[in-house]
Amino acid sequence: MTRRTDWADHTASESRPGAPGRGHGDGVEPERDGRDGDGSGTREGAGRSGGRRRRRGGFGEHQDSGPPSSSRAEKGEPPAGDPAERARAICLRLLTGTPRTRKQLADALRKREIPDEVAEEVLSRFEEVGLINDSAFADAWVESRHHGRGLARRALARELRTKGVESALIDEAVGQLDSEQEEATARELVARKLRSTRGLDRDKRLRRLAGMLARKGYGEGMALRVVRQALEEEGEDTEDLGHEAF
């Protein structure tokens, strides 16, 4: 067999001008595209190339084996860290622009899985510096809901209880309203609603107006008295009206 070095010399001599050509009769295949005659270079290169492709394929499969894990921020969760810092951040965000009771904040911290002892410490500190003040909250709630919505003391007390305000603070807050002020507000409510009931029969007007006052927390006696007076001022006969109509 011709050695590689001899074959290189031989092919070099063929490339010189005037060198005699050499056919295939010698039983030796000339190199093509830089490959050895026995094709070992091609097989070796193919083996290496195939190996690289398999490795790339395996790496790609590993990357595509599942969706990338989402961070806590992408899920909208607060960043992990000191529970007290998280509790303070949650409370400050909730208190921005809207007063809240201690119970409302405690419920929010519990939903965010803040430990109870940490929540208690943070909420107590917020009370010390005046960021939480259930008494002031109750006073402002009564002022706003009575003058804005016309709610009576009973309805106001019910709302404050649902927000976790203590009974003593509720009594103090709703005590700002006396019976005279409450009745004056009831008369204003009936006066605004009275026109829309014109054309209805007397008993239906009574039930509609008194029902409106009852939903706002006014007692039955006050509601009936205020509505009867309003109907009398419009010329309705209310002599035979009793609690049955209400």
From TrEMBL:
Pfam family, one: RecX_HTH1
Subcellular location: Cytoplasm
Main location: cytoplasm
GO annotation (BP), single: regulation of DNA repair
Composition-biased stretches (Gly residues): 39-49
Gene3D superfamilies, per the entry: Winged helix-like DNA-binding domain superfamily/Winged helix DNA-binding domain
Residue stretches making up the RecX third three-helical domain: 182-225
Domain of life of the organism encoding this protein: Bacteria
Sequence ranges of Basic and acidic residues compositional bias: 1-13, 23-38, 72-88
Region annotation (Disordered) ranges: 1-89
Domain RecX second three-helical: 133-173
GO cellular component: a single term: cytoplasm
Keyword terms of this UniProt record: Cytoplasm
HAMAP family assigned: RecX
Recorded family membership: Belongs to the RecX family.
PANTHER family linked: REGULATORY PROTEIN RECX FAMILY PROTEIN (PTHR33602:SF1)
Protein name, entry field: Regulatory protein RecX
Species of the source: Streptomyces alfalfae
